[in-house]
Amino acid sequence: HLAKRGRRGVETWAPDGTPASRDRLQTLEELRSALDGDELDVHYQPKLDLRSGSVVGVEALVRWQHPERGLVFPDVFLPLAEQAGLMRRLALRVLERSLRDLQAWRAGGLDLSVAVNLSVSNLQDVALPEQVEMLLDAFDVPAGALILEITEDVLMADTARSQQVMAGLRRLGVRLSIDDYGTGYSSLAYLRALPVDELKLDRSFVTDLTSDERASAIVRSTLQLSLDLGMGMVVEGVEDAATLTALRAWGCDYAQGYHIARPMPAERFLTWLAGQPAFVPRGGLPRPS
Ligand code: C2E
Ligand code: MG
Ligand code: MG
Ligand code: MG
């Protein structure tokens, strides 16, 4: 009967893809069962090291494989999961899946890292560091191969608690990255106060990089700032070759974007990598067993 009820809910989702309010309960019920079952999937987007030219890692991006609606994107269901208090379970699912896939890739000789996104409530969850530690142990992945991406709104919620969680994560050796950097306010204040390893510049600054001098000034000065702070910088949303060329010339460390690759299922990642000899990471491609 779930499928039938699911279908009814699906038909009344709003045109922008978000469930209409009278269907929120319905959708929430579906989301809960998606979390119990195997409808939540993780896609991976490669992260390119612009100096060596090779792929150094992937970002894990959650997807909901809905029985009737097909692939549902996180912008649609994450707000609902957040309101319903499901973010801890969601984060653990994504971490588990990502670390399992990473373990397999690393076992095959690929020297890769995985970046997992955290939400506001994840950073308020004092149990998180211990859970991350258990998962790293379970999958025998070194903490340094895990990057946790945090958006600036996380940092504004309850600073004392989120700083405690961040400190706990860093004690494990996990790396922290500020996602969508530059879109929140007082970004510079966090940079001063918080122990982060990487800046991930929001893609809005990159869209017209090669034609907009202001955008390019912002990218270049943020790059300089990250260098001076001893942090790595990732530019996300690279959609064309000209942007990639400019970033490389400016000395940007890492890039992600549709021009390099779109997020893809785990199975497709190795095939994609095999077709990109220039991007192959240290260790080479694993042999099929
Ligand atoms: P984000 O972490 O900033 O991820 C980047 C988003 O930009 C992804 O959208 C990615 O598919 C998209 N993207 C990558 N390259 C390009 C490009 O060249 N052009 C354009 N236009 N877009 C590009 P996605 O997968 O829909 O994720 C949206 C947001 O949802 C993420 O933004 C992140 O904040 C959140 N999210 C995704 N997965 C998770 C998760 O497992 N947990 C949590 N808490 N949040 C997640
Ligand atoms: Mg991210
Ligand atoms: Mg981002
Ligand atoms: Mg984002």
From TrEMBL:
Signal peptide per UniProt: none
Protein name: Diguanylate cyclase (GGDEF) domain-containing protein
Domain EAL: 24-277
Example GO molecular function: cyclic-guanylate-specific phosphodiesterase activity
Shown chain mapped onto the complete sequence: 662 to 950 of 950
Source organism of this protein record: Blastococcus tunisiensis
